[in-house]
Write a structure and sequence with these properties.
By secondary structure, the protein is of the alpha/beta class. It contains nine helices and nine strands. The protein has a six-stranded parallel beta sheet with strand order 3-2-1-7-8-9, sandwiched between helices. Strands 5-4-6 form a three-stranded antiparallel beta sheet, covered by helices on one side. It is elongated, with a radius of gyration of 18 Å. The two termini are 16 Å apart. Bound molecules: ligand BV8.
Amino acid sequence: MKIPKELIKYLQKSTHIAILTGAGISAESGLNTFREAQTGFWSQYRPEDLATPQAFARDPKLVWDWYAMRRNKVAEASSNSGHFALVDMESRTPNFTLITQNVDGYHVQAGSKNVLELHGNIQKVRCFDGCGIVDDWEDNSEVPHCPKCNAYLRPDVVWFGESLPLDALNAAHKATLECQAFFSVGTSGLVQPAASLAHTARQKGAIVIEINLDPTPLTPHVDFALHGKSGEILPALVKETWG
Ligand code: BV8
């Protein structure tokens, strides 16, 4: 993938870069992306129908098992060259904010420092009745109970219809307003409010770069659309920009 010279020159002068990542950046680690058709027993379900508080209330064991399966896949795989390229980019940029929709924890595992997990983290659980307990995931087949109030414990992720963690969302907005360059990497740009960040960056005068396997609804609005694998494009971009 040839990185446009104009983009390289602009990034070399940028002191604040913001990145939004989605499931696509973990695809080359071997993880299914969020909307990819599910396999086996899970092929009968749509992820959007399982990632809701209603689905968990209706059948806690089904939703718990879905996350246990996904968490095992996360544990079996690991960060890829795309994650590591962003660690490299962060070390070359005075102000760098990595905003992720992913719950796999791979950015922190790769060594990224300033990471905002908008949709939570699959390695943690919290009380379903909201008594504030947050704990490490317990590896058991039955849905665990809160040690404080005995309600079910649930994955510490943000489900559809639930609000995002305010501190992470506010920090993401702040970085989006202040950055000179905003990258959208490996995301279909369908889920709100994360999907609106790129448009906000553009309205504030930042250049917007999309790195994605396929075109998305964002593509017509970006300054640079680099279509291909993030695990190949990001290392090339970091090398050509910062050596
Ligand atoms: C909320 C955690 C307030 C769980 C997830 C407007 C404003 C506010 C809300 C809404 C709104 N309109 C609609 C809503 C409701 C809803 C929403 O957005 N619905 C959509 C589907 C229309 N939003 C919410 O409910 C949010 N809550 O706003 O609170 C509120 C409160 C009450 C009522 C209303 C509002 C909460 C959203 C968070 C949901 N939780 N995840 C879990 O993971 O199980 S979202 C889920 O989607 C994942 O986190 C995932 O990361 C995220 C986005 O998906 P992508 O990452 O983009 O993945 P996808 O598979 O779609 O695409 C992958 C891309 O990668 C593809 O384009 C592919 O081409 C590319 N790719 C593949 N391989 C590669 C690659 N690219 C590069 N290299 C490769 N190798």
